[in-house]
Amino acid sequence: MGLFIVKLGGGSAISDKTKPLSYREDWVRDLGKLLLTGVRAGNRFVLVHGGGSFAHPLALAYGLSRYRDNGQLTGVSLTSAILHYLSMKITMTLATVGLPIYPLRTGSIYVISNGKPQLLISPPIHILELLKRGGVVPMMYGDVVPSDEGFSIISGDDIMLDLSSKLRPSAAVFLTDVPGILDSNGNLIRELSSSSIINERNTRGGIDVTGGLMKKVQSAIELSNYARTYLCAIWDLKSITSIINNEEPSNCTRFLPRTKD
């Protein structure tokens, strides 16, 4: 039995970022069935999802990667609304397979202070209380939240790192549409540390206002100081099951913490 924090990548696992408002309901449903099995076995889960083809076009159009003035407030409103809509779609998909999702609006519980995510209630008592209630699965998402600058984007990766540092899960899993980080020849990199060379030109997909693959890798390596950390394909249910069973998956990238000098 363990606690697992799982990120559903917005532009790959739950949507195709090149197709506005696309939604991969089949992958989300299959993952929900797997997690339900895990809940019934006594495991606990916290989910985080990205904005993908729902939020990124709006955030890009209104320049929300950097808040400058009140002329962007309409963009803040629209982006926040579409993220809430996406969260409800995911909630409905997972609830229909029996997984008791409890969605939390990220902008209501997080701010960004001094450039870093800050929970308004810390330690995260509200999340811990939810986890005590019969297998309830709290779910958050990348969002536009109040910050020192006015508003800033908090990515799902930021939330993963912050929650893992506080909750110390058994494992943290980033889910995308590919089986981990691939090298320039398309081969899976099974282990990745800060000393490894990542060439961002090898990544796929459109513009990611939250920092792209490089930032994800950096966050995952830092997160690995708190928990076993992996990047896997959302459709690779066998590998995800292995992680939940405290086994090493066959087709994922594991991130390794920085070694101390």
Structural features:
261 residues; alpha/beta; eight-stranded mixed β-sheet; two-stranded antiparallel sheet; 36% helix; 21% strand; globular
List the helices and strands and how they pair.
Blueprint: E1 3-8, H1 25-40, E2 44-49, H2 52-61, H3 73-96, E3 101-103, H4 106-109, E4 110-113, E5 116-119, H5 125-131, E6 137-141, E7 143-147, E8 150-154, H6 156-167, E9 171-176, E10 191-192, H7 212-223, E11 228-233, H8 237-244, E12 253-255
Parallel strand pairs: 1-2, 1-9, 2-6, 3-6, 9-11, 10-12
Antiparallel strand pairs: 4-5, 7-8, 11-12
Helix pairs in contact: 1-3, 2-3, 6-7
Explain the overall architecture.
- This protein has eight helices and twelve strands.
- By secondary structure, the chain is of the alpha/beta class.
- It has an eight-stranded mixed β-sheet with strand order 3-6-2-1-9-11-12-10, with helices on both faces. Strands 4-5 form a two-stranded antiparallel sheet. A two-stranded antiparallel sheet has the order 7-8.
- Helix 1 packs across helix 3 and helix 2 (52-61) packs antiparallel against helix 3 (73-96).
